[in-house]
Amino acid sequence: MEFLNFLIILWAAWLVWRRPEKERLAFGLLVVSCLIMALLFFIGTHTSLVPGVNL
Amino acid sequence: MSEARLRSVLAWVVLALVAVPVGGAVWLGVVHGESPCILCWAQRTSMVLVALVALFVLRYGPRPRYLGMVVLLGAWGTFMAIRHSALHLARDVGQGFAAPYFGVHTYIWSWVIHWVALGVIGVLLLLLKEEPAEPERREPGRVGRFAMGFFVLVVGANALQAFVTTGPPPFMGQADPVRFSLNPKRWVWMSNDELRGGISLRGSWAVPRPDPAAVEADADPANGPLADLPVLAVQSWMRIAAPLDGRLTDLAHHPAMGGYVAVTDGFGVYVLDSALSAIVHQVELDHQFAIDLTPLAGAAFLGDTLAVLSTNKSYVLLQPDPGADADHEWRHFRTTSGDVTELRRSRFATVRARQMYVLSLAYDRLADELITVSVPSPRHRRLVVSRFARSDMMLASEFLPRLGPGVTWRGEERSLAEYVVTGAVAVDGMLYAFSAAYSTLLVIDLRTTLVTAAYAVPEIAQPVGLAARGAELLVAQADGRVAVIGRPGVNVE
What we know:
The structure holds two protein chains of two kinds.
Chain A: H1 2-18, H2 23-45
Chain B: H1 3-31, H2 38-60, H3 64-85, H4 106-127, H5 141-166, E1 226-227, E2 236-239, E3 248-253, E4 260-264, E5 268-272, E6 279-285, E7 296-302, E8 305-310, E9 314-320, H6 326-329, E10 333-336, E11 340-347, E12 362-364, E13 369-373, E14 385-389, E15 395-399, E16 402-403, E17 408-409, E18 421-427, E19 430-435, E20 440-445, E21 450-456, E22 463-469, E23 472-477, E24 481-486
Parallel strand pairs in B: 16-21
Antiparallel strand pairs in B: 1-17, 2-24, 3-4, 4-5, 5-6, 6-10, 7-8, 8-9, 9-11, 12-13, 13-14, 14-15, 18-19, 19-20, 20-21, 22-23, 23-24
Helix pairs in contact in B: 1-2, 1-5, 2-3, 2-4, 2-5, 3-4
């Protein structure tokens, strides 16, 4: 999934660099990438969502 | 700062961010074989996304949604770093996950970088001049274009590393990743290991606090984990007639003085006379001063010093003192009889009994050690005896008792962790532990760590403490009544 996420980021960066008129699509890809990152972190920490120390 | 100047600065920020933490991470993975775990990947991705938002600003100007996005990423990245670092922050010196760089591990560097990103965006916004709106798109300039190309190059390298070490979807990062290799036979792709286990907010820290005066448990010895228990009959009853503030949670006996110390869940500590009818000394501890005290659950005499223990393994040492300084002790006590001094207040640290509460305290005079017995919880089902040296109040040893000869299980799946020890006392190298669950007295040899005997005491209801008085054991109940039973193994002439 991390591989897929980096491909999405590459796509967004390419649009910003070479196809700047597609800002809406690039920003949408940025948002999707953020959500995938958050989902993967949630999967990695779902058995203890907050730091495992005395709170 | 003009917007043009801002974009120039941002281009350099992107170059630095992409070259050092993001590009450096690829170098660490490919050259040094230090692969990122699933949490490291998320943190690295967040840093990449911060740089990507900066590219958006380079190209389209500082639009509010870009600034909002970078603040969100900074806040989320900081949380991720704290959550990740918390796995390792409390470890011993020099320990951590993978190798440190410049003395700091990578998950901490991620914390620093996200924190700096938030600081940088704040400074840039402070310095940014309000100017008329510029065209929809801007030329990023030479450095900006280089930053964009460099970004694509480094993120492409990250994608390659991610493909090798985590695989294509639906595979994802792992908790313990193996080092980078170009040999496909050594690639480890997993898609379901990280999905195991239920969703929990606190994980292993979700431990319910026990009520020391109202343990909910099956009191019938016939249902306990040990079979064929001999019955100990109550020889007589006493009652604590002195007025206590709160519910009784433990009782200890002073062998030389003949008096007692009683503690309550209202943080009351009472030294009582030999008839349990008059208060000789009394304090109500300020449970919020310095050390967080949960309800008191244990008490013991260490010679003339009183040790009291709360359920979270915090302890207080007290001493009757006719010359007590009232003004100094004001910070320690909410109320006092005026003749008690607090000597020390601190916490016991355990290893095997970590994340477990206790409901008892004993003092082994022969070894000069204090002893606690953990109570099980749905998260941690163990019965751990922890021993602390009185000299420095630090852990001396711990053990999980095993059954000695002649003591047998009722079934194969039974365990000593089914007992909830609410009172304990050590005499002559033996630990006597009374369990509210199954109303059972366990006798544990402190030298061999074996349970040498166990007895059913069916007449007891809601036991909260255990004291020794010569050849007798005194089982204190939450209602203030005290049962006198013969101490097993002692011949009474």
